[in-house]
Amino acid sequence: DGGITQSPKYLFRKEGQNVTLSCEQNLNHDAMYWYRQDPGQGLRLIYYSQIVNDFQKGDIAEGYSVSREKKESFPLTVTSAQKNPTAFYLCASSIAPNYEQYFGPGTRLTVT
Amino acid sequence: AQSVTQLGSHVSVSEGALVLLRCNYSSSVPPYLFWYVQYPNQGLQLLLKYTSAATLVKGINGFEAEFKKSETSFHLTKPSAHMSDAAEYFCAVSPSPGGSNYKLTFGKGTLLTVNP
Q1: What does the angle CA A92 – CA B102 – CA A103 come to, to the nearest 5 degrees?
Q2: Which of B9, B41, B95 lies closest to A98 in CB terms?
Q3: Which residue among A14, B1, B53, B91 sits deepest, i.e. has the most Cβ atoms within 10 Å of its Cβ?
Q4: Residues B108, A97: C-beta atoms closer than 8 Å
């Protein structure tokens, strides 16, 4: 079955540690996205990538970093510079920019 | 610039009643419009999409939405609510392909509660 996988489902870290969230897709989509979701705030775009080896900052990129070395993979690193990292993180992909996006199951990150 | 406003952060209906979730958008270019559903602790699932073809769009699980350009609206409806419809619903807008803005902009979501 084609789809998007995110791992792990739940992640716990101590403040000051960097953490990397995994996102893999086998849909052969060119574009991939990372969103952050907080209660009552909808989805906010962190980074997006339209093609391999290229990515752009979204609305809330500070404290985050990404890479896109392979078409199917778009890992997100939450760095210690992110002031409020505890959130639900969603990865998505689309066949091309502006088309419908398909979402992974999400990773809930808790930093204490 | 584009934006989405979902009227009502929380809608409550009885089982069997009409579901109406409101979405208004603004876009400087012809838009694509989407409705997504999210169950607790899960990702978003695409319910339906408008891509400049028919203005009345049918989606999964009996939902449909009508694109009204004059009202800049894309409201989501379902004739008869089922308990399994309880979830959070998100409306989203993007420029139609070819535009320079590649972002999908989401509304803040509407939580639908279905009462037995």
Answers
A1: 10
A2: B95
A3: B91
A4: no
**Residue whose tokens read 């996102």:** A23
Is residue B85 helix, strand or coil? helix
Q: Given CB atoms, is A11 within the 8 Å cutoff of chain B?
A: no
Whole-angstrom distance, CA of residue A68 vs CA of residue A47: 11
Cα distance between residue B81 and residue B113, in whole Å: 10
pLDDT, tens only, B4-23: 999 999 999 999 999 999 99
State the residue for tokens 């400087």: B28
Distance CA A32, CA B48 (A): 20
Measured between CA atoms, how close is B70 to chain A, in angstroms? Answer: 23
* Chain A residues close to B109, C-beta within 8 Å: 40, 42
Q: Is the dihedral of CA B64, B114, B91, B40 positive or negative?
A: negative
pLDDT at B97: 67
Q: Least CA distance to B104: which residue of chain A?
A: A98
B71/chain A closest Cα distance in angstroms: 22
Burial group, residue A95, by CB count within 10 angstroms (0-12, 13-18, 19+): middle
Q: Distance (Å, rounded) from C-alpha B90 to C-alpha B109?
A: 5
Three-class DSSP labels, A36-86 = EECCCCCEEEEEEEEECCEEEECCCCCCEEECCCECCECCEEECCCCCCCC
